[in-house]
Design a protein that fits this description.
The chain is globular, with a radius of gyration of 19 Å. It has a 4-stranded antiparallel sheet, covered by helices on one side. 44% of the residues lie in helices and 25% in strands.
Length: 174
């Protein structure tokens, strides 16, 4: 299996890439498929674990990074984590009922009963977090803290959907 380390730029408007312009924390991914056209290359990857870049060096036309895996902090049998997982799953289904669109495969994965860390990671992809917020979630080793941030963002998005529906209902009533 071919692995790749994926990380973001600190400033996305910057064209030049150098070690100091990249985020230190990223994701070790498995390459699933490579799509190549005349003008671009797209790679389908599956995230395996969070990692920290230790060293980066340029080799011809690509970069090689030495990385160190970042494990999640142990959760144990924290009842608050279990409650957050249930809450997020129920509220996610509520958001869908209210009309929030989601990728079908992500929806199936989230509602299939995944673990707390995986739930936080999947929800971080589908909710409307800024790049900076996504990076914060990626760097957070405390699963409970990640779930709390996800629950907070999900609640904000549901409030927006409910307000939009209320506005539509009010304008249709006039």
């Amino acid at each position: 299996s071919r692995l790749i380390f994926v990380t973001g730029q600190k400033d996305t408007s910057e064209a030049d890439i150098s070690e100091d312009k990249l985020q230190i924390v990223g994701t070790i991914c498995q390459i699933k498929h490579i799509f190549q056209s005349e003008s671009e290359v797209n790679v389908l990857v599956s995230g395996l674990s969070r990692a920290k870049m230790i060293r980066l060096q340029s080799m011809n036309d690509f970069w090689v990074a030495e990385v160190e895996e970042i494990p999640d902090a142990p959760i144990g049998d924290d009842p608050e984590v279990a409650a957050l997982v249930t809450h997020i799953t129920v509220e996610f289904q509520n958001a869908i009922r209210l009309g929030r669109g989601f990728d079908f495969f992500v929806l199936m994965r989230i509602t299939s009963g995944i673990g707390p860390a995986e739930l936080a990671n999947q929800m971080a992809q589908v909710l409307d977090f800024t790049l900076a917020q996504r990076q914060e979630l990626l760097e957070e080793v405390d699963v409970k803290a990640r779930l709390e941030k996800v629950a907070e963002q999900l609640a904000k998005e549901i409030n927006v959907i409910e307000l939009e529906r209320k506005i539509i209902t009010n304008s249709q009533a006039k």
